[in-house]
Amino acid sequence: MALSKEQIAQRIAKELQDKWYVNLGIGIPTLVANYIPEGIEVEFQSENGLLGMGPFPIEGTEDADLINAGKQTVTVLDGGAIFDSAMSFAMIRGKHVQLTVLGAMEVAQNGDIANWKIPGKMVKGMGGAMDLVASAENIIVAMMHTNKRGESKLLEKCSLPLTGVGCVTKIVTNLAVLEVKNNAFYLLERAPGVSVDEIKKATKGNLIIEGEIPEMNM
């Protein structure tokens, strides 16, 4: 059974480590803040100038002036900080963020990522993703394995304009967890009830399968 967006975020949250600073991109990545494992402290950063983001606010308690980079209302934990974008990007460019979680429209087997533009559609620009993919050393992508037409989003080579080159380290989709290395997707885990054959059919890039592939422990 394929994972929901919330379950993808829940699985990515298992990658978090104590005292890490973590940047969450737009879309599925923002949900990761709702699933911090017990016993660890993590500081979530948003490039518009927030450090110490908490889970999404309960309906009716939103503060319209408190938003993340995707203009979604958020909460700030005790001790959180609000500052200008210049300081925020200095933090990112200075490699003070241990993990970046991004959404993607396509990922190539060499770690290229395309997540900002579909040709012919109006967009405001790449935004903070440009700095994140250039500076981060640990990028996990949260995405659906296929698009709405059932076509693979894990490719030999991206067809859309790139956001970053050779930067993705791991991918969590609704079907699987994969590591990106040696110009290939290495299958680490499969979603509960999803077979290796289903993942093969949904992956267009070079997929490496070594031994028995365990189900995700949700």
From TrEMBL:
GO-annotated molecular function: succinyl-CoA:3-oxo-acid CoA-transferase activity
Keyword ATP-binding attached = no
Know the name of this protein? Putative succinyl-CoA:3-ketoacid coenzyme A transferase subunit B
Coiled coil regions in record: none
Record organism = Tenacibaculum piscium
The gene for this chain is scoB
**PANTHER family attached to this UniProt entry:** KETOACID-COENZYME A TRANSFERASE, SUCCINYL-COA:3-KETOACID COENZYME A TRANSFERASE SUBUNIT B-RELATED
Presence of the UniProt keyword Transferase in the record: yes
* Family affiliation: Belongs to the 3-oxoacid CoA-transferase subunit B family.
Mind listing the UniProt keywords for this protein, alphabetically?
Answer: Transferase
Entries under InterPro entries matching the protein:
3-oxoacid_CoA-transf_B, CoA_trans_fam_I, CoA_transf_AS, NagB/RpiA_transferase-like
Q: Which domain of life is it from?
A: Bacteria
Enzyme Commission designation:
2.8.3.5
Q: What class of enzyme is it?
A: transferase
